[in-house]
Amino acid sequence: MSDSNGSNAPPQPIECRAWVAYEPKKPLKLETVIVNPPQKGEVRVKICYMALCHTDAYTLGGLDPEGLFPSILGHEASGIVESVGEGVTSVKPGDHVIPCYQAFCDACKFCLSRKTNLCGSVRQWTGNGVMKNDSQSRFTVKETGKKIYHFMGTSTFAEYTVVHEVSCAKIREDADLESVCLLGCGVSTGLGAVWNTAKVESGATAAVFGLGTVGLACIEGLVHAGAKRIIGVDIDAKKFEAGMKWGCTECVNPMDHEGRPIQEVIVEMTDGGVDYSFECIGNVEVMRSALECCHKGWGESIIIGVAASGQMIQTRPFQLVTGRVWKGTAFGGFKSRVDVPKLVDRYMNKEIKLRDYITHQMQFEDLNKAFDLLHEGKCLRAVLKAMPEK
Ligand SMILES: NC(=O)c1ccc[n+]([C@@H]2O[C@H](COP(=O)([O-])OP(=O)(O)OC[C@H]3O[C@@H](n4cnc5c(N)ncnc54)[C@H](O)[C@@H]3O)[C@@H](O)[C@H]2O)c1
Ligand SMILES: N[C@@H](CCC(=O)N[C@@H](CSCO)C(=O)NCC(=O)O)C(=O)O
Ligand SMILES: [Zn+2]
Ligand SMILES: [Zn+2]
Description:
By secondary structure, the protein is α/β, with parallel strands linked by helices. The chain has helices at residues 54-60, 123-127, 177-180, 186-198, 213-225, 240-246, 262-269, 284-292, 317-321, 336-348, 367-375, and strands at 2-3, 14-20, 29-35, 42-51, 76-84, 96-99, 139-141, 147-148, 160-164, 168-171, 205-209, 229-233, 250-252, 276-279, 300-303, 325-328, 358-363, 381-385.
């Protein structure tokens, strides 16, 4: 056990600020919390930058069957290791890291399979808002002594958080932490949906439903893959400018077609349908459209959006019988601790963009304003500065 001062004395509880979600649909409350030291297999991270993903808003909106309250939300961030618990070997105090909600242990049957990036090592505990070692939270509100649940194994809306070592990707220190925080979720997910899940080939046609950060990252991935036609779909025409800038060949608004299902419109535009489609919204009706706009015989539709509790997808089985494929992706199929550092390298080599997704730079205190911007459809990614790097 050691901390960022190089001391071998055991890490002590830290008092810091964190945003607590006490109830669904209510603004977060800024609290002073006690963050307990990392235990065996855990890492305490100083959060330097944090961004909001639509999934944070979804859980705060009470739509997540796994949503627990009170909790500290947030899963897209970057930071510096403050201290580590017993047995931690892959990171040390001072290392730059990206917390990863999708863990990678390199030992469970999922991690050993080339077919998936899901990891089974800590998922049961992260889903219950606690740490694996003692099934407890490391967060307590100073004033009330109330225990606060973790969220997605990351809880990055805090100045300090505790994550499992398997959820902590070490990255190079010359990468700017403000940009690379986006690799903790949205941008990686869109790129990986195209590269890993769909494995889009050069010359393919595609439709991307939802032109937020995840949809735009799909478009970026499609451009890299050499897709020849990329149709952006959004009900907010203001999103088309970004869609075209990122590489769409055209954009369509489902509201502009006199009630005709958008899948019919796309099938007509593309002589039978697209080779690949991506649903980046979380709307089960749109998931159906995204499947049904795919070409008979080979079209594949990838579900990325997270739908509300109780929602179900439907289509005629005939759509699948006739060769369309429905898939989903979590974190774009990337094996987090292995692949996130490589994505950082690709950003540093200017192969992928990150800064263009940052529409708002804000302060830690502005989190509720950032949620408002997200709900109003006014931002791609708002990135908030949490703690200074030095
Ligand atoms: N599977 C994963 O690993 C993963 C990772 C990150 C995000 N997500 C999910 O992906 C989705 C997108 O995330 P985001 O951060 O880009 O969200 P976002 O809110 O920024 O973007 C959503 C876009 O969809 C558009 N839209 C809404 N309803 C529509 C409709 N009926 N038809 C067409 N367009 C519509 C909105 O105008 C907006 O541009 C969310 O559901 C999020 O929870 C999943
Ligand atoms: N908890 C929800 C599902 C939420 C969900 O699907 N999360 C995505 C990541 S969204 C990131 O913005 C995911 O990767 N899920 C896989 C996993 O959580 O292991 C529910 O219970 O329906
Ligand atoms: Zn996310
Ligand atoms: Zn694993």
